[in-house]
């Protein structure tokens, strides 16, 4: 791989890390905040979560970076970029969203609707991230 392409992959990955952190904040910090308040007995104390917040952001960022790197690895220059991003997002959503939401439903005493919201949000986030990847990664 030429050094210029490596720089583009890393730059796209960093941008996707930022986008993923923003999507997670939108979903969990805004849209689902009421559901989390209704189920507060399941979660850590707010003070504990705040002390660990940086770790969560770092994990989300690293995921976004690797999401971009894997997208770039499979990029096909002869195909339409947006279609590739959409397809990649669908595949990642289908792979990750059911596993994440259903495993946490089994492990935590949460309402089934929260698991459904996580599944839908996770799938949506992966599709959006895939489409964003198609715009930011230019080999």
The general outline is elongated
Our count of helices gives: 5
Task: Please indicate the count of domains.
Answer: 1
Helix content: over 70%
Distance between the termini: 11 Å
SSE string: HHHHH
* Average of per-residue pLDDT values: 94
What structural category characterises the helix and strand content? Answer: mainly alpha
Contiguous runs where pLDDT drops below 50 for at least 5 residues:
none
What's the main sheet like?
none
Q: What proportion of the residues form beta strands (DSSP E)?
A: under 5%
Number of strands: 0
Radius of gyration: 16 Å
3D structure, described in words:
Helix content is 83%, strand content 0%. It is elongated and about 50 Å long. With 139 residues, it is an all-alpha fold. The chain contains five helices and no strands.
Task: Produce the secondary structure layout.
Layout: H1 3-31, H2 33-38, H3 46-73, H4 81-107, H5 112-136
Helix pairs in contact: 1-3, 1-5, 3-5, 4-5
Core attributes:
single chain, 139 residues, mainly alpha
Task: Briefly characterize the structure.
This protein has about 140 residues and is mainly α. It is built from five helices and no strands.
């Amino acid at each position: 791989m030429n050094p210029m392409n490596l720089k583009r992959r890393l730059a796209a990955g960093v941008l996707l890390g930022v986008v993923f952190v923003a999507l997670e904040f939108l979903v969990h910090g805004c849209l689902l905040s009421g559901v989390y308040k209704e189920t507060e007995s399941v979660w850590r104390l707010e003070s504990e979560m705040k002390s660990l917040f940086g770790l969560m952001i770092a994990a989300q960022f690293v995921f976004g970076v690797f999401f971009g790197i894997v997208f770039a690895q499979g990029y096909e220059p002869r195909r339409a970029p947006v279609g590739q991003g959409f397809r990649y997002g669908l595949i990642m959503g289908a792979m990750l969203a059911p596993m994440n939401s259903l495993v946490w439903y089994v492990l935590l005493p949460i309402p089934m609707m929260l698991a459904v919201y996580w599944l839908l949000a996770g799938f949506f986030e992966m599709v959006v991230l895939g489409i964003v990847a198609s715009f930011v990664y230019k080999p």
